[in-house]
Amino acid sequence: MLRFDDWTNPVPPADREVVALLPDDHDDQPPVLFVPGLGHGAWAFAEHWLGHTAGRGFPAHAVTPRAGGDLRAQVHDVVQVAASLPRQAVLVGHGVGALVVARALGRYPARAAVLVAPVLDGWAALAAALRANPFGTLPALFGGRLRLNQRQLGTGAAAYLERVDARPRAELLSRARLPKPVGAPPTLIVGSPDDRVVRRSALDRAAARYGGAPLLFPGMGHDLMLETNWTEPIDAILDWLGKEI
Amino acid sequence: MHDSPDPGDRRDAVCVVGAGASGLTAIKSLREQGFAVDCYERETGVGGAWNWRHDRSPVYASTHLISSRPLTEFPDFPMPDTWPDYPHHSQVLAYLERYAKHFDLGRHIWFGMEVVSAVPADDGRWDVTIQSTGGGSSRTQRYAAIVVANGHNWSPMKPEIPGDFRGEVMHAGAYKDPARLRGRKVLVIGGGNTGCDIAVEAAQQATEVWHSTRRGYWYAPKYLLGRPADQVNDRLLRWRLPLRLRQWLYRRVTPDLTRFGLPRPDHRPYESHPIVNSLLPYYLGHGRIRPRPDVARFDGSAVEFTDGSRAEPDLVITATGYRPRFDFLTPELLDTDEHGRPDLHLHAFARKHPTLAVIGLLQPDSGVLPLAHWQSVAVARWLRLRMTDPARAAAVQQKESTRPLTTWSRRRVVPSSRHWFEVDHVDYLRALESLLKQMES
Ligand SMILES: Cc1cc2nc3c(=O)[nH]c(=O)nc-3n(C[C@H](O)[C@H](O)[C@H](O)COP(=O)(O)OP(=O)(O)OC[C@H]3O[C@@H](n4cnc5c(N)ncnc54)[C@H](O)[C@@H]3O)c2cc1C
Ligand SMILES: NC(=O)c1ccc[n+]([C@@H]2O[C@H](COP(=O)([O-])OP(=O)(O)OC[C@H]3O[C@@H](n4cnc5c(N)ncnc54)[C@H](OP(=O)(O)O)[C@@H]3O)[C@@H](O)[C@H]2O)c1
């Protein structure tokens, strides 16, 4: 309750890109806000999921948090965009974006939340990355770029590998506790047992944290939203949403 | 708006009085705890004091916040970060309207309906009588609890000044537009934030300005070291600087106005409600505002002050504050004394009526909204706990009754009705936090 950081040193404003697709008639559905992970931007959702979500009647938005912002700034950006929407929003975060969403849930009472292939534990993600792609990962430990390969992100992401400019910050390795979500929103964990960034065990731990079991899509890589069969997870997410709200 | 609820018994529903900032956040918290809510608002829109179209709104055209944005916004619904440090009142209203829409609170609000009486019934329930402000029809409904968020800055407190005055006298509550001041000779009475703001406006508009205060104050600037003053103050609180040291610093950063003829403060810093105004010293220094002591009496076209000096204003604006009013409750429900001062636990919970609470009856050294938010969270959880686990609720109540007053209420203040609800936001939030923890564990 005592938020001295925000009271004495508020996050300064910054430009954030927001891409939106609104269905013609969207009075009865809550807006969905997608939050991309490390190295990704709103574009990763604009490819397929945004249009599909709007097509199913949800106002669909995706934000690219400020460039070079730390976790606190990214959480701030997500909460700012969520609060700017006309109605209480559903937050959907992917990868490190799911960590940003998990933190934002302590600040904003989302209508519901979906954590897709969530990187909630930086150490586990680091271990997984070192195993799957040691040479792409090592430079990141020394402040360089984290190179993610096709085996990690999935075949669907192959065309986008150059676009993914991931520069992880050391704070991802902090073990700070995730806040308790305000307003107790229903929360869903989605992932793939074949994801080489977020392992099955990490998905199970995330699901346990938010109560429930993960919804799994075998055979997919980390970037579920860019995979060839991207419709399956997003349809499942929107079906779940339809039931929960 | 929704259809009429069933007349009569509303079962587990909670009644909220008022749809200002406090009422809105109360509705939201109660909904989050699963309560059905009927909120009655006598005006035609949300926003309370910040809706300056409302007759009773105390806000004038130029009002900007005195608490800076991060210390004023609801903790779970930030104002846009592109807004200024001190937003204009129209922005605060837009913010409250967006809050209501975002969380779909309008569905629970009945506009143009005034609560005219609330009477305890069996089992801690309440019979609430509501009257349409258009006149006419009234009805009574029974609720499981009542949450009062009627505001305390709308009923003017007018000074009784002996003698007759030929000019115009108005209370600050009726003052809206600086055009009223243009080309006139104006006396402003009262050294609160309203009085200081209006004195400054008069300095910009009127031909002559007198500002009467019955004591000296500490006039804090809006900015210190380039940052909003309340944010700097919170840095000191964060570092847990002792009060004595903070008082010493406060003396260093507030201008010495005795040179302009103002009395020296008769109290230490932090012992009166903060005045935040950077322009008052400026206009005093330019001779545009002439300080005067308390008014002794009116004398025809003149006003006589306690030091014997006189002035002949055309217009006297009494910025002497507002009194809390709970016309729909008998005084003993809120343990109200003969001066009209309610006595509530944490300024929120009625001591003898566990299903009666008041939100927003606070004068903090920060914005009111964050405190009203956490009060609402606590009240909603408390009402829920009473239903789900009466034994624990009783234990919590027992424990709360031993919480020392000094931990949450500012006791060392100038004895004036304007300090009845003075709190330090950090102490106050700590108290609420520990209450919330008790209810969780
Ligand atoms: C000039 C001025 C400047 C201020 N500046 C700041 C500032 O900078 N920062 C800050 O945090 N606070 C400031 N405040 C304090 C301000 O009062 C609060 O911010 C806030 O408006 C309190 O909200 P509320 O809901 O408690 O009361 P209100 O805003 O007064 O709302 C109460 C509502 O209840 C309704 N109501 C009352 N009685 C009944 C009834 N019997 N039946 C039905 N409806 C009823 C009223 O119509 C009203 O809509 C300022 C106040 C004034 C006067
Ligand atoms: N810009 C802003 O955001 C802003 C602007 C205005 C008000 N506000 C807030 O609104 C609330 C109300 O402020 P306010 O200024 O209207 O009222 P207030 O704080 O109650 O101040 C009233 C002033 O009038 C004086 N006074 C009272 N009765 C008097 C009498 N009979 N004779 C002479 N003087 C008398 C008081 O003196 P004593 O000190 O001796 O009692 C005090 O100086 C406060 O919370 C304030 O912070 C904010």
Automatic annotation (TrEMBL), chain A:
Keywords: Hydrolase. Transmembrane segments: none annotated. It comes from the Bacteria. InterPro entries: AB_hydrolase_1, AB_hydrolase_fold. Residues 32-227 form the AB hydrolase-1 domain. GO terms for molecular function: hydrolase activity. This is Alpha/beta fold hydrolase. It comes from Actinoplanes aureus. The lineage of its organism: Bacteria, Bacillati, Actinomycetota, Actinomycetes, Micromonosporales.
TrEMBL record, chain B:
Its cofactor is FAD. It is a single-pass membrane protein. It is found in: Endoplasmic reticulum membrane. Its main location: endoplasmic reticulum. GO terms for molecular function: flavin adenine dinucleotide binding; N,N-dimethylaniline monooxygenase activity; NADP binding. Keywords: Endoplasmic reticulum, FAD, Flavoprotein, Membrane, Monooxygenase, NADP, Oxidoreductase, Transmembrane, Transmembrane helix. Pfam families: FMO-like. Belongs to the FAD-binding monooxygenase family. Belongs to the FMO family. This is NAD(P)-binding domain-containing protein.
